[in-house]
Amino acid sequence: MLATSTYNSISDEELMAITSIIKNRFGIDFTGYEKQSMKRSLARVMGKCKLDSTTDLINVILDENNRFVNSINDLTFSRTELFRNPDVWEVLEQDVLEKLKFKPNINIWHAGCSSGEEVYSMALILAHHNLLQKTTTLATDISTRALDRAIQGRYSNTLVSKFEKSLQRFRPYGQIDELFHIDEFNATVRDQYKKHINFRNHNLISDSTNEKFDIIFCRNVMLYFDDTLKLEVIKKLRQSLKDGGFLVLGYYDLLPEEVEEYIVPYSASSQIFQAKKSETIEVEMHDRRFTLNKISA
Ligand SMILES: C[S@@+](CC[C@H](N)C(=O)[O-])C[C@H]1O[C@@H](n2cnc3c(N)ncnc32)[C@H](O)[C@@H]1O
Q: What count of Cα atoms within 13 Å lies in the side-chain half-sphere of residue 197?
């Protein structure tokens, strides 16, 4: 094994070994993540833990005292912000919610919610349209650290002041303290916005969910997945969408062509897709009747 923690010194074989060990030890599968990003993240962890070689890293991963647990959070990328890419929020507000607002209830899932800014941006828009009360929101992430921050909903004042411009765009007459309780250093999301949100630790690759949603956000989560993994995740997300439900991806989430079987572009410039409708077909074989799901446009 090599005695340096720079990412280009981690070979593909070492990367494969390390991700397999993490998978066996913690059940978290990073094997389909894009190689260079994963190597950079592992090198970051090695630097932080002052480890000189990948052998030392493996020893820490296998450590009885679970020393590696905290570092798992460092293997994902958590950058997020309130009303990230405002154009997308405009389509969501003016178009998607217009379609959903007459439903008796609305189910939303933020998969890979990071520290919660995306979830609270949506909550503010829902409240503005009097839809918050009939909306159930699930917000999940693989990173317990990010999730803890999301649950707290406490951000620095500096960060929130950056958001003031976006707030003006969506709530021209709104005030920032409508969403946040502001003190000297922090801006904390008010309970009325938090109470309809269910935060949960969830790994998009290995965990499942039985619920069905009208909108799923999965923005900037698959950036580091390879095409095979992206396709697998899109199939799963499709299964969790109601027919015609909306999938919101990140600007740079490039997808393999095969996803066309499951989702169709709704607003291509905003990376909003719609689930293809699933139809059931009855097939009779050897005197037995089977019901199969068929996906159609
Ligand atoms: C860059 S942040 C995106 C946050 C937010 N969706 C946005 O676009 O502003 C990506 C998040 O995805 C989470 N993530 C990465 N892999 C995941 C997985 N397999 N399952 C669930 N969450 C994952 C990371 O922990 C991180 O918080």
A: 30
Distance CA 245, CA 100 (A): 9
Please give the torsion angle defined by the CA atoms of residues 205, 113, 95 and 131, in that order, rounded to the nearest 10 degrees.
120
Per the domain annotation, does 210 fall within a domain? yes
Question: Which atom of ligand 1 has the smallest separation from the CA of 73?
Answer: 25
Q: Which of 143, 208, 221, 232 to mutate to test the pocket of ligand 1 (most atoms within 8 A of CB)?
A: 221
| Shared-domain flag, residues 94 and 235 | yes
> Angle at the Cα of 250 (from 248 to 254), degrees rounded to 5?
105
Report which ligand 1 atom has the smallest distance to the Cα of 79: 1
DSSP-derived 3-state class of residue 196: coil
Which residue ranges have their beta carbon within 6 Å of ligand 1?
76-80, 84, 112-114, 118, 141-143, 146, 203-205, 219-221, 250
Per-residue pLDDT band at 4 (split at 50, 70, 90): very low
Q: State the distance from the centre of ligand 1 to the C-alpha of 77, rounded, in angstroms.
A: 7
Out of 141, 159, 163, 204, mutate this one to test ligand 1's pocket (max ligand atoms within 8 Å of CB): namely 141
| Structural domain count, the chain | 2
Whether residue 90 sits in one domain with residue 71 = no
Whole domain around residue 37: which residue ranges? Answer: 7-75
Distance CA 227, CA 19 (A): 18
Shared-domain flag, residues 147 and 240: yes
Is the domain of 105 the same as that of 52?
no
Per-residue model confidence as pLDDT tens digits over 56-73: 999 999 987 777 877 887
Q: Which of 37, 114, 149, 232 to mutate to test the pocket of ligand 1 (most atoms within 8 A of CB)?
A: 114
Structure tokens that stand for 258 in this block: 């095969």
Query: pTM of the entire structure?
Result: 0.84
Could you tell me if 222 and 255 lie in one domain? yes
